[in-house]
Amino acid sequence: MRIHLTSVFVDDQAEAEHFYTQVLGFVKKHDVPVGEKDRWLTVVSPDEADGTELLLEPAGHPAVRTYRDALVGDGIPLAQFAVDDVTAEYERLRDLGVRFTQEPLEMGPVTTAVFDDTCGNLIQIATEPQ
Fold it and tell me: 3-state DSSP call for residue 109?
């Protein structure tokens, strides 16, 4: 068994597509119309084209706002992405205007930082333990 797909709820798929591809650097994998306005829109790491897909899922379900607001209010990231160097990625993203809620923080063998994805979620970046 392996993880093939996971999702983040987004308020606007076009804005999410821009942020996740142009700012974070993911690559669009699937973009299929679903219904009148939604899309099956997934992105992947440019280093793993056949790796785990991230679905930029419309946040239309009534429970989503309550769930996301509670997580953001408590400072809890919805997802975590691995990076080679948290400090370098923090500086790159900060220079692109990304708002961080937690600057790089060393926690034993792992360094983390948390940013606002502009789509309603907090996302954590982290180094993998050595």
Answer: coil
- Please say whether the beta carbons of 53 and 42 come within 8 A: yes
Residue 114's nearest CA partner among 128, 129, 93 is 93
Alpha-carbon distance of 102 to 96, in angstroms, equals 16
Residue that is written with structure tokens 């993911």 in the block:
26
Distance CA 34, CA 88 (A): 37
pTM: 0.94
pLDDT in single tens digits along all 130 residues of the chain? 999 999 999 999 999 999 999 999 999 999 999 999 999 999 999 999 999 999 999 999 999 999 999 999 999 999 999 999 999 999 999 999 999 999 999 999 999 999 999 999 999 999 987 6
Q: 119: which residues sit within 8 A by CB, 6+ positions away?
A: 8, 9, 10, 11, 12, 15, 16, 19, 56
Half-sphere exposure for 27 (CA within 13 Å, toward CB): 10
* Cα–Cα distance measured from residue 64 to residue 86, given in angstroms and rounded to the nearest whole number: 29
